[in-house]
Specification:
This protein is mainly α. Helices cover 62% and strands 11% of the residues. The chain starts with a strand and ends with a strand.
């Protein structure tokens, strides 16, 4: 990883701040306890922001302390956090795939107005129609460039921050 780690302190005093309040109401068949509590999304967003703001030359160490929890319970909480991070990475990968696919479709879609524009410029001497189809083609091309180079970059940075959290060392 790196020579130096930076620590992100995650100290939680109230257990209700740890879990998503909507996942705590799910009970097993006997009506006891929460079967699969989910980590509060605000905690994941907080970790993601800290990882995003931290220079990449540093590794990340997450200091996790939850009031009244044993080390075994903390290990379960760490696994829940990592599970939520994996889910978010998967959603980010899907978003990146969709952006690439949309940009390819837009580039291919730009060839239709370019072909029509070329046809009009060669056979039908209509300046307004020729320019109209040229502008439409450029709009398609620009949107493809915007998706692939600008939006894609921000989402890829988010994924990098999430991967850094996934690789982080947890300490108690």
């Amino acid at each position: 990883m790196s020579l130096h780690n930076r620590t992100v302190r995650l100290h939680i005093n109230n257990e209700s701040d740890l879990y998503n309040k909507f996942s705590l109401g799910i009970c097993d068949d006997e009506g006891e306890g929460s079967v699969n509590p989910e980590i509060n999304p605000e905690l994941i967003d907080y970790l993601q922001k800290k990882a995003f703001d931290m220079p990449r030359i540093y590794g990340i160490k997450i200091e996790l302390r939850v009031k009244g929890k044993s080390s075994q319970e903390l290990a379960e909480i760490r696994e829940l956090i990592k599970t939520e991070i994996r889910k978010k990475i998967f959603r980010t990968n899907v978003a990146l795939f969709r952006m690439r696919r949309q940009s390819v479709i837009l580039v291919l879609g730009a060839f239709v107005p370019l072909t029509v524009q070329h046809f009009f410029s060669q056979f039908i001497q209509r300046y307004a129609l020729t320019e109209f189809f040229l502008v439409v083609a450029w709009v398609f091309m620009w949107k493809a460039v915007e998706l692939f180079f600008f939006d894609h970059k921000d989402t890829a940075k988010e994924r990098t921050a999430l991967r850094r959290i996934l690789k982080a060392d947890f300490v108690d």
